[in-house]
Write a structure and sequence with these properties.
The chain is built from 18 helices and 2 strands. The chain is mostly helical.
Length: about 450
C-alpha cells in the first residue's frame, strides 16, 4: 500500500508571525484610550463612559459577528480571512488619525475606528487553532496556538507602556500616527505571503473533511465535554478580564500605586500600575508559551495540566485577596509579584482550552469550536462592561472594587471544579496516530 507523505514547511513560521502581529496590533489598538483617560478627555473630550463604550465594541462585535465569521472562514479559508482582517485594521487605525486635536465634532471617528477594530476580533480569536491545524504537525500545534493567542497579551502589555509614553513624551497624535503605521506594516507583511494552506498538509487531519456549518453547531451544543470547557474557560477569562478593569481602583495611591510610566527607582517600578499591567500581561505570555511546549511533549494530558494550572491560579488569587485586605503583607512588591504569578497560571490555560476543545469536537471545524468557546468569555466580558457603564465599580466606591479580589479567587476555583467533570477525548490525535505509517518530511532537512 502506498503511504502518503506529510510535509512541514519553513513558511509556516512566517505565517505564524504574521498572524501574531495582527493579534498584537488589534489588542493594542483596542485598549488605547483606556490607558490615557485624562489625555483623551483633554484633547478630544472623550468621557469615561465613552472610553468604556469604545472598549465594549470589542466583545459586542464578537458576539454579533461570530457566527457569520465562522461561516466566512469555512467558506473562504485562511488567506482571505487574514487579508480582510489586516486591511480593516489598517483602515481603522488610519481613520483615528483624522480627528483634529481639540475638536469634539469629529470624535465620532473614534467610534467608527473602534467598531472596525472590534470587527477584527473574531479573526483574532477564532483563527488560531485553524491556523495551527493547517500549518503545523501534531507535536507543534499547541505551541503554535499559544503563540497566536498569547500575542494578544503582548499587545496589551505594549499598550500599557507605549501609549502613555508616546502621548506624554511627544503628543497624542504622534501615538495615533505610530499605531496607524504599525497597522499598515502588518497589512503589507501579511499581503506579501500568507497562502491559504501549505502545498502538502502537515498531518492527516489537516486536510480531512469537516462537518458542515449547521451540523457543526448542533454537534457543539450536544457535546457535554465541550460545554464543560466553555463554562470553565469563560469563568477564567471573564473573572480575569473583569478584575483587570477595576485593578487601578483597587491599587490606588492609598495602596502605594500610581499611574506613572517613567520610573527612577525599583520602588517606583513596583508601585506603577502601568508597569504592573505590562508585566502581568507578559507573565501571561510566558506562562502560555511554557505550558504549550510542555503540552506538546505530554500529549493527552490536557485535563491534568488544566487542573494544576487552575489550582495554582486560585492559590495566588486568594493570596492577592488577603494581601489587599491586609491579612498578610500589603507591600507593593508582594502585590505586584503575586498578581503576575496569578496571571502566569490563569492565562497559561488559554491555549489548552483551545486545543482541548478541538480534540473533543473533531471533526467539527476548528473555527466553529474556537468561536463558540470564545463566546463564553466575551459574554462574561460584555456583562462586566455593562457594570462599568452603570458605575457600580468606580473611584467613588472603592470598597466594591476591592470585593472583586474575592470574586477573582472564587470564579477561578469554580473553573477548576468544573474541569473535574471534563471527559478527555483525543479524537484528532487518535486519527493522526492511525496514520503514523505516513512519513513526515521536514523540508529543512532536505
Amino acid at each position: 500500500m502506498q503511504t502518503r507523505k506529510y510535509e512541514v514547511y519553513p513558511g509556516r513560521f512566517y505565517v505564524l508571525i504574521a498572524f501574531a502581529l495582527l493579534a498584537l496590533q488589534q489588542n493594542l489598538a483596542w485598549m488605547t484610550f483606556g490607558t490615557i483617560p485624562d489625555e483623551s478627555y483633554k484633547h478630544f473630550g472623550l468621557s469615561d463612559n465613552e472610553i468604556t463604550l469604545l472598549a465594549a465594541y470589542g466583545p459586542i462585535l464578537f458576539i454579533l459577528l461570530m457566527f457569520p465569521f465562522i461561516w466566512f472562514l469555512d467558506r473562504f479559508g485562511l488567506r482571505v480571512s487574514m487579508l480582510s482582517a489586516v486591511w480593516i485594521l489598517a483602515v481603522a487605525t488610519g481613520i483615528q488619525c483624522l480627528v483634529p486635536e481639540g475638536s469634539t465634532k469629529w470624535k465620532f471617528l473614534f467610534h467608527v475606528g473602534h467598531i472596525l477594530i472590534g470587527a477584527v476580533g473574531p479573526h483574532v480569536m477564532i483563527m488560531p487553532p485553524r491556523l495551527s491545524s493547517v500549518w503545523f504537525p501534531p507535536n507543534q500545534r499547541t505551541f503554535a496556538t499559544a503563540v497566536t493567542t498569547m500575542a494578544q497579551s503582548v499587545g496589551i502589555a505594549l499598550g500599557f507602556i507605549t501609549v502613555p509614553y508616546l502621548t506624554l513624551t511627544y503628543s497624542i497624535h504622534t501615538m495615533l500616527y505610530v499605531q496607524a503605521e504599525m497597522g499598515l506594516f502588518v497589512a503589507l507583511f501579511a499581503t506579501v505571503y500568507f497562502p491559504p494552506r501549505p502545498p502538502s498538509p502537515p498531518s492527516h487531519t489537516a486536510d480531512a473533511d469537516r462537518t458542515e456549518f449547521v451540523s457543526s453547531l448542533k454537534a457543539l451544543a450536544c457535546n457535554p465535554s465541550f460545554l464543560v470547557l466553555g463554562i470553565s474557560g469563560g469563568l477564567v477569562s471573564g473573572a480575569n478580564w473583569g478584575f483587570s478593569s477595576v485593578l487601578s481602583i483597587i491599587l490606588n495611591p492609598t495602596s502605594g500605586f500610581s499611574d506613572v510610566v517613567s520610573v527612577s527607582s525599583v520602588g517606583e517600578f513596583f508601585g506603577s500600575n502601568a508597569w504592573l499591567g505590562a508585566c502581568s500581561s507578559l507573565s501571561a505570555v510566558i506562562g502560555g508559551q511554557l505550558v504549550a511546549l510542555l503540552a506538546d511533549k505530554l500529549q493527552r494530558r490536557f485535563k491534568l495540566l488544566l487542573l494544576a494550572l487552575l489550582t495554582l491560579a486560585t492559590i495566588f488569587a486568594f493570596w492577592f485577596a488577603v494581601s489587599v485586605y491586609g491579612f498578610t503583607s500589603s507591600s507593593t512588591v508582594n502585590l505586584f509579584i503575586t498578581l503576575c504569578l496569578q496571571y502566569f497560571f490563569a492565562f497559561a490555560t488559554t491555549p489548552l482550552f483551545y486545543e482541548a476543545a478541538v480534540e473533543v469536537t473533531y471533526p467539527v471545524p476548528e473555527g466553529s469550536s474556537a468561536g463558540v468557546l470564545t463566546l463564553f468569555s466575551n459574554v462574561a466580558t460584555i456583562l462586566l462592561q455593562i457594570i462599568a457603564l452603570c458605575h457600580i465599580f468606580s473611584n467613588d466606591h472603592p470598597e466594591r472594587a476591592r470585593a472583586m479580589v474575592w470574586v477573582l479567587g472564587g470564579l477561578t476555583a469554580l473553573a477548576g471544579v468544573t474541569v473535574v467533570f471534563f471527559k478527555e477525548n483525543y479524537q484528532r490525535l487518535d486519527k493522526d496516530s492511525l496514520k503514523r505509517e505516513s512519513l513526515v518530511i521536514n523540508k529543512n532537512m532536505k
